[in-house]
Specification:
There is one protein chain. By secondary structure, the chain is an all-alpha fold. The chain has one domain. Helices cover 83% and strands 0% of the residues. It is built from 15 helices and no strands. Helix 1 packs antiparallel against helix 9. The protein starts with 8 loop residues before the first helix and ends with a helix.
């Protein structure tokens, strides 16, 4: 356990953010490695895997319930020096993660094809996406267990073990991807199925190592089967904080689904280009996301210890660092958008859509950094409903005009990117207003 109620806030932020950023980066490599090799199979395969990968946002939404709820409550318990409560929350989170993993497999194998049919009318894209999902589902299911364990460690201020295990998993995935997708060395390519198989094998190995770490090396929070009996009070606390955060990510899934639906009339190249551009954009967001993921543990421990000024300092430094990083990435996209996507496809139409998307959407980066920061602070304060309100407002302000625009005769794809820029800026302003209100209300300690 690391005490985050002492020492300089910027030091804690950077020290936690670096391994978190590395962990997020290698996690993103799961998709980028698959994307690189799948792109060699043709634009239908690329579009299918990109659209299917959007389903992972549903898993992220559900894992966020455990992620945010566990990290927040464990950090509050650490701040109060209450080890028993931290262990109870951790073990209840593991129990819930196991149930959600089983549910993911059941629903995934039952509805993957129906999901792909909602996103595309192209039979080849539907077939590619469905095949990929069937083999990628074990990876998606095991994310729940990984997230529950990683969140508990992050709540105690520990992030390096998860980073190292994620790096190992990605190296395994990188080694397996060309063998299983393209048939390097074996002479038996599995195509899009190989992409899913490689990712699933890698994450299975990662989970096994992480379980070993908890059973043998972790001492503050530990797997204790006597605490696996359902404790509805603890589950209610987890869900009260985690559910809004999970719902927020589900709204992101709907946001992406609206875009895929709106641009389908522009053809396969447009969907593949948007899928490529959005994946690269997500990779660029990693430094700001790492800072935002560090903030809840720092703010949470200081909130639990009733140190309001350190909570405010956490917001100030997270916002400053996030905006600085995002400003640099904005300049990079304006300067070298084509270079950022050039390695992932040889199709000029796909590359044109992807680079055009990045060149325009990068104006969202600084406001997005503020949104990430506010969301992290809401988690640290133990009230994630304002973040959900902010995201829901953004979805409505984007989806309704996007649906209307897509039905107009003079509709062109750049209108979707302009609409996104406007709505993200508005969301960042709303998030800042809601956070200011929460800081005033929740930092009034007696």
């Amino acid at each position: 356990m690391k005490d985050l109620t002492q020492g300089a806030i910027p030091h804690h932020l950077v020290k936690m953010a670096i391994p978190i950023a590395i962990g997020l980066f290698v996690q993103t490599l799961y998709f980028l490695v698959d994307l690189y090799f799948v792109s060699q199979l043709g634009e239908e395969a690329l579009a299918g895997v990109s659209a299917a990968g959007n389903a992972n946002l549903i898993i992220i939404a559900l894992t966020q319930i455990l992620n945010v709820g566990t990290a927040t409550l464990v950090s509050h318990a650490v701040g109060r020096k209450d080890k028993n409560d931290a262990n109870k929350i951790f073990n209840q989170s593991i129990l819930l993660s196991s149930l959600l993993a089983l549910l993911t497999l059941i629903l995934g194998y039952g509805f993957s094809q129906h999901y792909m049919q909602l996103l595309s009318s192209n039979p080849q894209i539907i077939a590619a996406g469905t095949t990929y999902l069937y083999w990628f589902l074990p990876n998606m299911a095991l994310q729940f267990v990984i997230v529950a364990m990683a969140a508990a460690l992050r709540g105690t201020g520990i992030v390096k073990p998860v980073m190292l295990i994620q790096i190992l998993s990605v190296f395994i995935n990188i080694l397996l991807a060309p063998v299983l997708i393209a048939g390097w060395g074996s002479g038996h390519p599995f195509g899009v199925a190989g992409a899913g198989i490689a990712s699933s094998i890698a994450v299975i190995i990662g989970v096994a190592i992480l379980l070993f770490y908890f059973l043998r090396l972790e001492h503050y929070v530990a797997v204790d089967l006597s605490l696996w009996r359902p404790d509805w009070a603890s589950c209610k606390r987890l869900l009260a904080i985690g559910f809004p955060a999970g719902a927020e990510f589900f709204l992101m899934f709907l946001y992406m689904a609206v875009i895929y639906w709106a641009i389908q009339s522009f053809g396969t190249s447009a969907q593949a280009g948007f899928g490529l551009g959005s994946r690269v954009m997500q990779a660029l967001f990693l430094p700001a996301m790492a800072l935002a993921f560090s903030a809840p543990a720092i703010a949470g421990q200081n909130f639990g210890a009733q140190l309001p000024e350190r909570v405010r300092q956490t917001f100030k430094w997270t916002a400053l660092l996030s905006c600085a990083v995002m400003a640099i990435l904005t300049a990079l996209c304006l300067w070298q958008a084509s270079w950022l996507v050039s390695s992932f496809s040889n199709d000029l139409a796909v590359l044109a859509i992807a680079s055009g998307f990045l060149t325009m959407i990068c104006w969202n980066f600084v406001p997005t950094g503020l949104i990430f920061t506010c969301s992290g602070m809401f988690q640290g304060l133990g009230n994630t409903w304002p973040a959900l309100i902010s995201s829901a407002t953004r979805l409505l302000s984007f989806a309704l005009p996007a649906i209307w625009l897509a039905q107009q005769d003079n509709f062109y794809i750049e209108q979707i990117w302009y609409l996104s820029i406007i709505t993200v800026i508005l969301q960042s302003l709303l998030s800042l207003y809601l956070l200011k209100s929460q800081l005033h209300q929740r930092l009034q300690f007696s």
